[in-house]
Structures are given as C-alpha cells and as structure tokens.
Amino acid sequence: EDAGMLFLFETEGFHGFWMRGMQFPIDIIWIAGGRVAGIAERLPPDESVLPRVYYPPEPVQFVLEVGAGFASAHGITIGDAVEIAYTESISP
After folding, report:
1. Which of 8, 37, 38, 75 is the most exposed place for a label (fewest CB within 10 A)?
2. Residues in Cβ contact with 40 at an 8 Å cutoff, skipping those fewer than 6 apart
3. How many whole angstroms separate alpha carbon 76 and alpha carbon 89?
4. pLDDT tens by residue, 8-57
5. Stated pTM of the model
C-alpha cells in the first residue's frame, strides 16, 4: 500500500504495459510534462497467451505502478501536478 514502481523512459512515447505475471491488481498512472496524463485503475492480473496491453492517452516519460485503488484513495486525477525528485543517480 505504501510502495510502487516508477518507470522512467529516456523519451516520451506511447509505452505499453501488460499484466502478465502480476500477482495482484494495480493502478497505472501515466505522467507527462509534470502532470498526470492518464490513469488506468484496478487492472487485474492477466495470464492470457496474448494479454491486453495498456497504453497512455498521450506520449509519457514516466509510468507509476501502485496497488489497485491507490489513485482513487488518494484523490489522484488527470491533470494533477507531479513532482519527481531524484535522490540518487541511476546507471544502466
């Protein structure tokens, strides 16, 4: 409930995500230009041979995965400002 996974891409794009191999449902928060660009809520795990792929509504540079219901519980909506602070450098 108090953790998530942040994906950072070098360039903005329509980066797709799927739920294959997930053990629990999640919310995906799409982030572009310092704001919430879209939210895909309560996505269930999907073990299909060809699982559904979720895409942002516009090109994004960041994608935040959090537990299902997080966005709603915290009142996160499209257009909300987002600030991402780096605390250490990330190397490939």
Report:
1. 75
2. 27, 28, 30, 54
3. 27
4. 999 999 999 989 888 899 999 999 999 999 999 999 998 888 889 999 99
5. 0.88
Q: What is the largest CA-CA distance in the chain?
A: 38
- What is 15-72 written as a DSSP string? --EE-TT-SS-EEEEEEETTEEEEEEEEEPP---SS--EE--SS-EEEEEEEETTHHH
Return the SS3 of 10: strand
pLDDT > 70? residue 89: no
Is-contact 56 63, C-beta < 8 A?
Answer: yes
What pairs with residue 17 in β-bridges?
54
